[in-house]
Amino acid sequence: MGFTEADWLAIGLTLRLATTTTVILLLLGTPLAWWLATTSSRWRGPIAAVVALPLVLPPTVLGFYLLVSLGPNGPIGQFTAALGLGTLPFTFWGLVVASVFYSLPFVVQPLQSSFASLGERPLEMAATLRAGVWDSFVSVVLPLTRNGFITAAVLGFAHTVGEFGVVLMIGGNIPGETRVVSVQIYDYVEALNYQQAHWLAGSLVLFSFLVLLIVYGAQGNRGSAGFALGGRQQ
Amino acid sequence: MTLPLEKQAAASAILARIKTHIGQSEAAQKPAFTLDVDLELPGQGITAIFGASGSGKTTLLRCLAGLQAIEEGVLIVNGETWHDTTVSLPTHQRPIGYVFQEASLFEHLTAEGNLRYAEKRAAPGGMQFQAIVELMGIDSLLRQYPSELSGGERQRVAIARALLINPRLLLMDEPLAALDRQRRLEILPYLERLHREIQLPILYVTHSMEEVTRLADSLLILEQGRVAACGELVDLLSRTDLPLEFGEEAGAILEGQIVNRDERWHLATVAFAGGEILVRDTDGLGAPGADVRLRVLARDVSLSLENTSKSSILNRLPARIVLIDEGDTAGMSMLQLRVGESRLLARVSRRSVHELNLREGLALYAQIKSVAILR
């Protein structure tokens, strides 16, 4: 026994989705987390709450609203259609957009807490040593918050791999396009093919365990990630 | 308030007219605070910024560095405008070196990594890496991480790093305050060397009178965000009306040269503008001809109308009373004396002032019980 061709297709798609999502999330999440960690704006609270929403919302609710707004009659759908991109639901990029929303808190929160624990002093030091803003970020912030970035990337990746409800709502079940591992497992179970489901499900358990091992290992080093794992896994 | 340097004006001076508030919003536990100063500091030598905690020393330094926004004011350093109504240079464009009070190294870099960080970004034409490492005596520490260094070692590395950036103004924010006395005594000689060997204006924030008297050429005293006094150290410390915190520590500074060292009695003679004075000959003392700085505390000076030699006190100098300040301390008066070209302070009881009929202009003898050698 082992993985079937369809399994491999689902695994490949899942890894591609998780990688793309993680890269986008790091690019978007870093400035957002920085702003949340340093601002004294009155918008801080509302924005932080919006970022954390996916932690508490049922994925079907998130998926439902994304489906509506990305669809042909939704504001984003009309925008993407006007750009000639068509509409995103039931496509790979639709899943990417959904995953970015869904996994946002898992990337922003560890980054935010490691930026906050950094304090102002290292940046002040860098400024007195003639380092400009970008230079300080690369030469001081990145190395000092490395563990935060590792935690953010690993959690963002793993959480995207584990997503199911949002995928069903917005992606459906198109092989090679939107049928990710979690959907594939669901299909096996529905078809009472427990043997095949075991293979994939067991692999995800092992994968998740290894991911958490890495995260807690990184936190153990210097404790700069400081993120309590409390999100909902499906 | 203005210094003799005023005539040379902006070319070699630091002009700072700063008004800024530290709001309640930033740090809730601190009360709102206003810094409001109008200063001209010398663009050379060490200027100590002295005051109680909360007097605005650090805020002033941070304004100069651009780490704290100036709400209203002008800042011109050696002829260059750093801040006025139209420009405000960000910190990384100001030619400063800055030494923080503590936690002042990058934890993710070794001592050498910290130094190279500055070297890479330094203005051209500064001192060589090796020369600065030797000046601060940190050659053996280069491979270690900040967490492996003692507090004193870290500050020496931090000072070396600030020098490597090749600053035109060095700002030091209580660099020794986080250290115990033993460590402070270890670092002070390095700072004195820095002062002797490098032509670099230094603003040195401290609340330690010992550091002020050993290191400073000029002194700025802040009180609750305002200038209480500003001028050359020797002039300022012979004033009778300095803020209260000087109380027991009030004392004049004498600068002179060693004339000879008497090995039999372990005494050295120091000539100053106004006479000669005997000091205890300690190991650290230089050869005849070397410059020394002495401090005579007001409480160690007593007054006598006659030149009586039947006393254990060795130093008895002819003096004239310049002024008598009744001061704020009950029962005690502060007197300023002229000894030749120099000034001394004497703190005597009001009763003595009355009984000896001491008055301004009177000639008498100042008996000095003890003299501290500062450097």
Overview of the molecule:
The complex is a heterodimer of chains A (234) and B (375). Chain A has 234 residues and is an all-alpha fold. Chain A has a single domain (5-222), classed as Orthogonal Bundle (MetI-like fold). In chain A, 75% of the residues lie in helices and 0% in strands. Chain A contains 11 helices and no strands. The longest helix of chain A has 34 residues, at 5-38. Chain A is globular and about 65 Å long. With 375 residues, chain B is α+β, with helices and mostly antiparallel strands. Chain B has 2 domains: 4-242, 3-Layer(aba) Sandwich (Rossmann fold); 251-373, RNA polymerase II/Efflux pump adaptor protein, barrel-sandwich hybrid domain (OB fold (Dihydrolipoamide Acetyltransferase, E2P), Beta Barrel), CATH 2.40.50.100. Chain B contains 8 helices and 20 strands. Chain B has helices spanning 57-65, 111-121, 129-136, 151-164, 181-197, 209-215, 233-237, 350-355, and strands spanning 13-22, 33-42, 46-50, 72-77, 80-83, 96-99, 169-173, 202-206, 218-223, 226-232, 251-262, 267-272, 275-280, 291-297, 301-304, 315-325, 332-339, 342-349, 363-368, 372-373. Chain B has a 6-stranded mixed beta sheet, with helices on both faces. A 5-stranded antiparallel beta sheet of chain B has the order 13-12-11-14-20. In chain B, helix 2 (111-121) runs parallel beside helix 4 (151-164), helix 3 (129-136) packs antiparallel against helix 4 and helix 4 (151-164) packs parallel to helix 5. The longest helix of chain B has 17 residues, at 181-197. The two termini of chain B are 27 Å apart. The model of chain B is unreliable at 1-10 (pLDDT under 50). Chains A and B meet through helix 6 and helix 7 of A and strand 6 and helix 2 of B.
